[in-house]
Each structure stands twice: as C-alpha cells, then as structure tokens.
Amino acid sequence: FILRKWILGKSVSATSFRLTEKFILLLVFSAFITLCFGAIFFLPDSSKLLSGVFFRSSAVETNTRTGPDGSEPGSAGNDGREANPGTPKPGRDGPKSRSYRRYAWGSNELRPVSKQGHSSNLFGSIKGATIVDALDTLFIMEMSEEFNAATEWVEKNLDFNVNAEVSVFEVNIRFVGGLLSAYYLSGKEVFRQKAVELGEKLLPAFRTSTGIPWALLNLKSGVGRNWPWASGGSSILAEYGTLHLEFMHLSKLSGNQEFAQKVMNIRKVLNRLDKPQGLYPNYLNPNSGQWGQHHVSVGGLGDSFYEYLLKAWLMSDKTDEEGKKMYYDSLQAIETSLIRKSSGGLTYIAEWKGGLLEHKMGHLTCFAGGMIALGADGAPGDKTGHQMELAAEIARTCHESYARTALKLGPEAFRFDGGVEAIATRQNEKYFILRPEVIETYMYMWRFTHDPKYREWGWEAVQALERHCKVEGGYSGVRDVYSSNPSLDDVQQSFFLAETLKYLYLLFSEDDQLPFDHWVFNTEAHPLPVIRKEQTDRPNEVE
Ligand code: DMJ
C-alpha cells in the first residue's frame, strides 16, 4: 500500500501514524530506494529496467493520455513539459515512442511539443525516417508489436520513387543503414529488397570526373550537385567518406559489385592526394580532384570518415589492410596536430584551419572517445594502452562539457580559450538536440573497461533527458543548456531513437548484447555484421 501510494506520487499523511509506525515506514521506504538504485547498477537485467523507463511498462501505456496523477496532457505547462519530473521512476512515465505513432506516424520526425509531424529536407519527400531509423532499436529491445507495425509500414508505404533531392549521406546512414540492420536482425526479405533498391537509386551520385559523389541527388532524374555553402563546390569528407560500410553490404546482399567498386574508388582518389601534415581536409572538389579550403575536423564535416576507416577494417574480419593503415595513420596525424591538453588538464580535439588551431570541440567530436577505444586493441606498436588512456581522457572532457551546464546536457560546441574550459561561449553553440555522441563514448568505454563511472555518467544523462527534454508528446531538443528554464526546439530527431536510446540501452546491457566481435555499428548506430572470410549470405548467420 505504501509503495503504491509512493508510485502514484501521492504523499502519505505523517500525522495519521504514531512515531514507531513512522520510523518503520521510513526504514521500509529507505530500503526500497536503496534497492531501486542497486538494481539499476548491479542487477544483470538492469537493461530491462532502463527500457521500462523509456518504453514499456504496462503502467506507461495508460499514462499517455493522462498524467501520472490523472491530469490532462500538457497540464504541466504550456510547452507540455512536466512541472517537476525529478528522478525518472520506472512505470510512471509515458512511452514517448508511442507519441510518434500517435501524432506523426509516417512523417520523418515528430514535433513533440506541437504534437505533429516534422519534415526534414535532408530526405526530400522520402517519408518515415523515424520508423526506419528505429527498426533495429525496436527489435533489440524486443518491442515486437511496435517492430511489426513498423515493418508493415515499410512494406506498404516506404517509397523511393520520388522526384526529390536528398542528402546522399543522410539517406545512406539512416535509411540504407537502418534497413540493412533490420534485415540482418530479423531476416525479413522486405528490408533487403528496400535497401538494395535505395542503394541503386543512390548510384548516379557517383557520376563525377573523379567518382567522388555529390552531396545532393535528385532520386528521379539522377542529377547531383553539392551544398551551395561548401568551399569551392566541394564534396564533404564526412559525407563521401561515410558510405563504405553500407555499400560493402549492399554488394554482398545484391551480388552487384558496383557498390563496392564505388567506395573503393573513393579511397584510391584520396590516396593519390597530398595530405597537409598527414591530415584530410574536409572539402574535396569532385571534378578537379583538388582539396578545397584546408579545414580539418574530427567533428562536423570530418568525423565519420575516420570512423568508417577503422570500422571497414573491423567489418572485413580484419582483412582490409588499406582501411586499417589509413585509420591509424590519420589518428597519428590528428594526435600530432589537433589533440591538445588545457591548462586545467582536459584533453580535447581542436579544429585546424589552414595551419591555425581553433580551440573548439563539437559535441559531434565526442564520438571519438568511443572510436579510439574501439581501435586501441589493433593499434600498431605498443600504443594500445596509450590509445585507451586517450579515449578515457576524451570521455572525461566530454562529461565535463555536460557537468558544467545548468541542465547537465552538453552544448553543441565548447571551447578552450579566453580562460574557459569545456564551456560554450557563443549563443549559437549552446543548444542540445538529443545527440548521441557522448553516450556512445560512455557505452564503448564501459564495454572495454567496466569502470562504473561510465554507467553513472550515462545515468546522469538519462536523468537530465527526463527532466529537461521530456514533454507530454515525446522528447525535444533545448535551445540553451546553460539556462535553467530553456526553450524547446520542438523536434525529436530520428537519431534519438536510432542512437541515443540504443546506446543507453547497450550501456546498461550485458556485453553479449550485440558483441563487438560480431557486429560493427554504422555511424547512425545501426549494427552490421562482420563479413567473415568464408561467410554465407543468409541473415542471422553472423557467428
Ligand atoms: C547522426 O546522424 C550520425 O551519428 C552522424 O554521423 C552525425 N550526427 C548525427 C547525430 O548527432
């Protein structure tokens, strides 16, 4: 009775008990709280508890229309945010995955405050980004009813025959990657067919003099172009360099070697070019084959290029020696030219512009802690220990970028100059859009070290998400992580379901959940199986 009262959020009147009864009540209550926290961190099945927070306790289902105390939706405030949500309590809070289904089913993304669909122009008029991006998360979390509904939507509605311009990179990592993972996990043929169909539609993007693909492509006409803002009409390193994993699998699943040839050619072009101090500039003109502006970044515009070099080697069952060499050589150049330590002892990865360092690190750059940890084992020479230390230092810096804010959520970019450390100084860098990179690094660091601080840091992020991003209709980004009452951006990014929640789930799961020696995550957290030297083409045979 007491626990039920507590769970329902109602206070028990102390005056109705005598002193000894109050003492016993206090003891029971403290024991219960201790047990709950113990369960979160130590019980083997703690992952299930976490998934309950987000998705699926039975109490949750009935709570989506009314608040926990029976109040009307949105009654917590006019932005729909709960008045004082406090520590997340399993079983009390609404399943935000269902909000997308209720308010935005089939749209690319959800607007959780205004409770409607949101269409991003990254996907042209292709629909259903959130559905495809979330397929494998639903499967991994054993949400079979939701997975089946999503599968049915894909079968009946996912249509690539559109006269629209899309981002080749975004469509590849979210749609092709999401469909490939869904196929390998479930074995359902529809996902393989759709992935190959979409891959074929992306092939005209490679019709340039060098074979470096365009950033944007009209899926009907096959006409490509680059972002108008990109230096000298260039293609972007993180975009053309983040096709490799998916395209290798497309060749394997379709028997069409063109996919693999296209991405292997990108490497050839890069290997012919001189690299300033061994670094890869973010801009490359696809027709002249010359670098554009010499801007180097392990964050936006560069990030997942480095990630895919390492993962190409791992996904090839460690046979892709070229990918391996390119990864470790580029990491060496990054260490020499970009990685610095602040006077306060925080290691960070700066950006490089024509030889000058900008002492800024993006939230996106924080994925590098996980990447460096993942690659440490194969590092040449005696560098394994050094690279693990580097990864841990980057994880700590990124945690500091969260810890030094009012909301305990990290800014889009933080700086190390003018006396500040790990703090955003520009208003337009203070936002948080539910990005996964910091949690991704915690997840890798947990798997490799089992240091409990990574789960503690992950749990801090869960609490902050619940307090500041959760609204009646889902989870929203916030505009200023240094303000105690920030405005919301009213977008639930599709990568929140694909990546942020999946990495949190894995952080609190056992290591045999998607083990790293069998699965490699694409940059949108879609797991792809290692292609064994002697592997059959049948799904689920990834052992
Ligand atoms: C995701 O779409 C991918 O992780 C991409 O590589 C970079 N940014 C977003 C999430 O922040």
Number of helices: 19
Please tell me how large the radius of gyration is.
24 Å
Strand content: 5-15%
Strand order of the largest sheet: 3-4-5
Low-confidence stretches: 1-19, 36-78, 82-96, 536-543
Present as ligands are: 1-deoxymannojirimycin
Structural class based on helices, strands and sheet pairing: mainly alpha
Report the biggest beta sheet as strand number plus sense, adding barrel if it closes.
Answer: 3 strands, antiparallel
Helical content class: 40-55%
Description:
The chain is mainly alpha-helical. Helix content is 46%, strand content 9%. The strands form eight sheets. A three-stranded antiparallel beta sheet has the order 3-4-5. The protein has a three-stranded antiparallel beta sheet with strand order 8-11-12, with no helix packed on it. A hairpin with a 5-residue loop joins strand 17 and strand 18. Helix 6 (129-140) packs antiparallel against helix 7, helix 6 runs parallel beside helix 8 (168-186) and helix 17 (437-449) runs parallel beside helix 19 (494-507). The chain is globular. The N and C termini lie far apart (49 Å). The model is unreliable at 1-19, 36-78, 82-96 and 536-543 (pLDDT under 50). The structure holds 1-deoxymannojirimycin. 1-deoxymannojirimycin binds at residues 304, 364, 435-436, 495, 499, 523-524.
